[in-house]
Amino acid sequence: MLTIILILITHFSFANVKIEDIDIGNQNEPVLLFLTNGKVKTIDKSTAFKDKDVIQFFKNGIQKKAFYFKEDHYYKSILENYDQVENLFHSARREYKEESQCYHRAHVWAYEWRKMGVYSTKTWLFFSKKYIREHNFQWWFHVAPSVHVKTQDGLKERILDVKYGKSPQKLKDWTNIFIRDGSDCPIVEKYTDQADFPESNSCYIIKSSMYYFQPYELELHEINNITKTLWVKEEVQISYKDGFDILL
Q: In principle, which of 92, 139, 225, 235 could form an S-S bond with 162, CB 3.0–4.6 Å?
């Protein structure tokens, strides 16, 4: 059993990819490994592991780095009109690697828009364990930058997912790309609001500032009540390299 776990650690800990979470499932269901790159790996119990205590030991052994930044309020940019939103969307770097991960693309786009004076936000879409099992879905989260714009009907949000959209999108139009059953995705405030209720909905939405890099930082924000308020050089470098094959 220990040999199998060591194999899994070795296999899934390369190239900055580690195991974020594990779902054992019911007796006849496969084990789901939630990887830090957003993918879901399915492992058959008969060929992997059966001992729940060992699984828990493995889960407890997952290392998550902490960040220590001052607590601060994030003031997102408010764009004046839809033309500005469209211009921002079409200014985005597009030569991303086909196998790139969403959080790398989102980080580079947000980073470059910040250099243009725009403080964007990020919209995180989490797929529930229920949805992943029912649809054999291969991802557990997706993320894209978002911006807010003034309209006659008040402040509106648009998702700027350059890979999956031809133009800025409304939230529901964006989630419909990925949610095959058309379910609404509740917007929640805390990471545990989605992580602790895997059977309640198909999906959940969490909003953050542009600085958040991966989901574990949303979890740390909830635990420590500390807001991430700056770019981390190493994260930006990794995103350029893994997302766009650019060395900074």
A: 92
Domain that holds residue 167: 78-244
The tokens 């308020």 sit on which residue?
Answer: 229
Please report the pLDDT score of residue 136 as a whole number: 93
Burial of 212 (0-12, 13-18, 19+ CB in 10 A): buried
- Sort 98 into a burial class: Cβ within 10 Å, 0-12 / 13-18 / 19+: exposed
For residue 176, give Cα distances in angstroms to 34, 132, 164, 226. 22, 15, 11, 32
What is the reported pTM?
0.80
* Residue 91 neighbours by CB distance under 10 Å: 14
Give dist(CA 202, CA 219) in Å, integer.
20
Supply the CATH number for residue 151's domain: 3.10.620.30
Q: Give me 188's structure tokens.
A: 């929640």
In 170-208, which positions are buried (b, 16+ CB within 10 angstroms) versus exposed (e)? ebeebbbebbeeeeebeebeebebbbeebeebbbbbbbb
Name, in order, each residue with C-beta under 8 angstroms of 142's C-beta and a sequence gap of 6 or more: 38, 102, 124, 125, 127, 178
Q: What is the pLDDT of residue 160?
A: 98
Within-domain flag for 222: yes
- Inside any domain, residue 181: yes
pLDDT in tens, 84-129: 999 999 999 999 999 999 999 999 999 999 999 999 999 999 999 9
* Residue matched to tokens 């949805």: 131
pLDDT digits (tens, 9 = 90+) for 6-51: 334 434 443 457 777 777 777 778 888 888 888 888 877 665 554 4
